[in-house]
């Protein structure tokens, strides 16, 4: 019995960061830029070959630190072959919502919340290391098509809710809304242009939600499903395609100061920030029941 308790304490210590040391994230890239990501994906190769990468600015604008979305999470996801930079949102003080492809086959994830500048140790930041034991991928997640691209990460040591760390608002369960033609905002620390580094500060970009009928022809059959939500980049010169973190937030704001997350950044053309090609998100309204069922950890948290 003593051995079991000791083992649990050791695991718990390994799974939570106590000392906030500086993070060397210079080698972190988007999940889709790690080696082999596009292998076996059902995306047409023409999209990755017909458009040359360009240095044009496509990344939107910085978020005012005084008005940062306090439900945004930053994920440094570790793989045997590199580190991926992903986004997420805070469901509760013990649960994070993100894209399944961000964490699929990873070794562990460093979660940072309350962050504006990811290269600085800010007083508002809280960190947790999450092991695969605490990943819950949607059972229908398809790594080839990125359908049902949604996951929840469970945290053993709960986050402390503050002005800089809060929970996200989601559409109500059973909502039939499609959000077509609404102005939506993507948030993240992704690239501000096709060839440059990822952003150090939280960025935002605005795009219009389009119907799936308009989105589907840009991708191979089966990529855009009923569980996909798309935004257009044709009117913004590609804005948003580079800047948004995979796994990150797409929200709308119908009332001042009360944003609602409607999508999880899922996919875009393999060519990167290509003007006119849509960005695909996981449609949250299709998964509200699953999110509710899986927000509570499936097993008791570690001591």
Question: What do these coordinates show?
Answer:
The protein folds into 2 domains: 2-43 and 70-167 and 288-294, Thrombin, subunit H; 183-285, Trypsin-like serine proteases (Thrombin, subunit H, Beta Barrel). The protein is 11% helix and 27% strand. It is built from 5 helices and 15 strands. Strand 13 (249-252) and strand 14 (260-267) form a beta hairpin.
Distance between the termini: 14 Å
Shape: globular
Oligomer: single chain
Helix content: 10-25%
Number of helices: 5
Name the beta content range: 25-35%
**Uncertain ranges:** 1-20, 45-57
**Which sheet architecture does the biggest sheet show?**
8 strands, mixed
> What top-tier CATH class of the largest domain fits best?
Mainly Beta
Q: What Rg, in angstroms, do the CA atoms define? A: 18 Å
Work out the count of structural domains. 2
Give the structural class. Answer: alpha+beta
Please state the second-level CATH architecture of the largest domain: Beta Barrel
What sequence of helices (H) and strands (E) makes up the elements? HEHEEEEHEEEEEEHEEEEH
Rounded average pLDDT: 79
InterPro entries: Peptidase_S1 (IPR050430), Peptidase_S1_PA (IPR009003), Peptidase_S1_PA_chymotrypsin (IPR043504), Peptidase_S1A (IPR001314), Trypsin_dom (IPR001254), TRYPSIN_HIS (IPR018114)
Protein name: Peptidase S1 domain-containing protein
GO molecular function, one term: serine-type endopeptidase activity
Domain Peptidase S1: 57-296
């Amino acid at each position: 019995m003593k051995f079991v308790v000791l083992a649990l304490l050791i695991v718990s210590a390994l799974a939570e960061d106590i000392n906030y040391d500086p993070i060397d994230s210079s080698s972190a890239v988007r999940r889709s830029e790690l080696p082999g990501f596009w292998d076996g994906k059902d995306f047409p190769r023409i999209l990755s070959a017909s458009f040359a990468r360009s240095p044009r600015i496509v990344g939107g604008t910085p978020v005012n630190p005084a008005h940062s979305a306090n439900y945004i999470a930053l994920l440094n996801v570790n793989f045997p072959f590199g580190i991926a930079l992903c986004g997420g949102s805070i469901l509760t003080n013990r649960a994070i919502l993100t894209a399944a492809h961000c964490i699929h086959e990873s070794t562990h994830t460093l979660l940072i919340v309350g962050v504006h500048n990811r290269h600085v140790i800010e007083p508002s930041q809280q960190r947790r290391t999450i092991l695969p034991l605490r990943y819950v991928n949607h059972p229908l997640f398809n790594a080839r098509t990125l359908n049902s691209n949604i996951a929840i990460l469970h945290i053993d040591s709960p986050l402390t809710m503050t002005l800089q760390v809060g929970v996200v608002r989601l559409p109500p369960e059973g909502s039939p809304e499609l959000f077509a033609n609404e102005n939506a905002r993507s948030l993240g620390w992704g690239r501000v242009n096709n060839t440059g580094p990822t952003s150090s500060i939280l960025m935002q970009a605005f795009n219009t939600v389009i119907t799936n009928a308009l989105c589907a022809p840009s991708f191979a059959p089966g990529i855009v499903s009923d569980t996909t939500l798309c935004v257009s980049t044709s009117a913004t010169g590609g804005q948003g395609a580079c800047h948004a973190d995979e796994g990150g937030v797409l929200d709308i704001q119908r009332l001042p100061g009360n944003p609602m997350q409607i999508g999880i950044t899922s996919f875009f053309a393999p060519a990167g920030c290509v003007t006119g090609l849509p960005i695909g998100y996981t449609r949250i309204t299709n998964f509200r029941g699953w999110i509710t069922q899986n927000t509570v950890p499936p097993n008791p948290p570690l001591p």
